[in-house]
Amino acid sequence: MRGVSSSAPDRSFTLHPRSTVSDLRVRIAPSPTGTVHLGLCRTALFNWAYARGRGGTFVLRVEDTDRTRSTAESEQAIHEGLRWLGIDWDEGPDVGGPHVPYRQSERIEGHVQRAQALLDAGLAYRCFCTPERLTQVREAQEKRKETPRYDRHCEGLSREESDRRAALPVAGEPFVLRFRVPEGATVFEDMVRGEVRFDHAEIDDWIMVRRDGTPTYNFVVVSDDVDMGISHVFRGEEHLVNTPKQILLYEALGETPPRFGHLPLMLGTDRKKLSKRTGDTALGDYVAKGYPRDAVVNFLCLQGWALDGETDVFDLDTFVKHFDIVDVQKAGAVFDPEKFRWLAGDTIRRMSVPDLADAVAPFVIDEGLMTADDVAARREWFERLVAGEQERIELFGDFPPRVRPFFEADDAVTYEEKAEKNARKHEDRAAILADFDAWLQGPGWSDDVEALGAAMKDWVKERGIKFPILFQPLRCALTGMAGGRDLADCVLLLGPESAGARIRAGIERLA
Question: For residue 294, what is the enclosing H or E element?
């Protein structure tokens, strides 16, 4: 193994940033054990933008060594989630070309060989301590108010003794493989946080390989990053404590560590790590509610980074052009759900009507209001229905309940309590509605919304009444809602026959 020394010297290690990177390679390495978390999406966006803006390579690697929790469905959800965000990867699962093992479960043999090389070089040692003994050691340390850590009980075993105990008859004595942490300190320049120092006295002789022979996270992540030539590692702040362990492992392997940048935590409104306590944390939840993709990407980009301190709305191309990891803030990024929803609404208002119609159609279909064939056959009508709500919705999922009245039976429109209360305030409501219906079915009808709207207002003025006297009972009869789109637009969307039927039903229901 290149660079593995034959002894375990006491040493301090300082990592200085490299002045140039000839082959910029970044990665994300999610575990397929659940939903696609927004934190993963933010980390992926930052890594991807850094690579795309500098002509680098973006690698997707799946850390699926937790065989009890990893699922193919979860991995597929990761792929679909990243692609939905507009993120592609240059290397990794589902990329064309020769098969390369980008799943950790396919790389175990290489991990074991590397661990054996470190053991042979004296940079790791077998630990035969039982779980019961380790529990006793930890409890004693806690009583003395000491930081719990391994007491290095097995660190002084000779290699001969270690080999003998590991090779006992039948299966040998169970052991873990621990990394031998030297004395000294690790200092490195974090691209987000600046200089970071860890005294080795604070670092445990951590486990590289478990009793069942499976390697641990800190070991495999370094091994894979070495094999894949990763030059920069940008990840969440919670991984900062792992960095000195990993840098020491790079040194033990004779490899140059990548440059590190630890992104600030995403915080909930309670200023604790983002969790279900303060809102949804999975990308799928926001997709299901109808947050536009551009709004989701825009919002995630603002979690710890800013374009210029003033501009909140920008597209993915602008983000790639301007993003630099050194501009990411150190402090935690507070997840503001109100701002997120505002961004969603702003995105919807800037969409073209045809694009918005395409976006809301699946939600209408899922609600059973229309079929895909219905949408296609009544496309012009559907786009008109969409246009009337564009200024009123913030999410695609807001659309179906707002237009549900246009799909109800004319004699069974659901009346909101407020709408019916407004209608019943007017004593002459039945006579007014009947008079208006007669006019509408005769000379009042127009296929032009502006002409119809003007004629309706003239009708009110000619009778010397106030607008609410007609419009509140009429809106209740047509839609059952207390407010909403222009009434002339409602009439045209329903058509003369349906509008008339609803008015006549309203006369009976409101009498």
Answer: helix 293-301
Catalytic position from the list 272, 273, 276, 339: 276
CA proximity to 202, closest of 233, 242, 235? 242
Query: Are 78 and 36 spatial neighbours (Cβ–Cβ below 8 Å)?
Result: yes
Residue-wise pLDDT tens digits, 367-426: 999 999 999 999 999 999 999 999 999 999 999 999 999 999 999 999 999 999 999 999
- How high is the pLDDT of residue 511? 84
Q: Would residue 276 show up in a list of annotated catalytic residues for this protein? A: yes
Mean pLDDT computed over 455-460: 96
Q: Could you read off the pLDDT of 99-110 as tens digits, one per residue?
A: 567 888 888 889
Q: Is the dihedral of CA 436, 438, 443, 446 positive or negative?
A: positive
Of the candidates 420, 413, 429, 431, the one whose C-alpha atom is nearest the C-alpha of residue 501 is: 413
- Beta strands 25-28 and 176-179, pairing class: unpaired
Contacts for 92-101 with beta carbons within 8 Å, 24 or more apart? 92/59, 92/60, 92/61, 92/62, 93/60, 93/62
Nearest-CA neighbor of 94 among 103, 84, 85, 86? Answer: 103
Give the residues across from 60 on adjacent strands: 28
Place 449 in a pLDDT band, splitting at 50, 70 and 90.
very high
Q: Which of 62, 59, 57, 56 is nearest to 36 (CA)?
A: 62
Q: Which two tokens stand for residue 114?
A: 């590397």
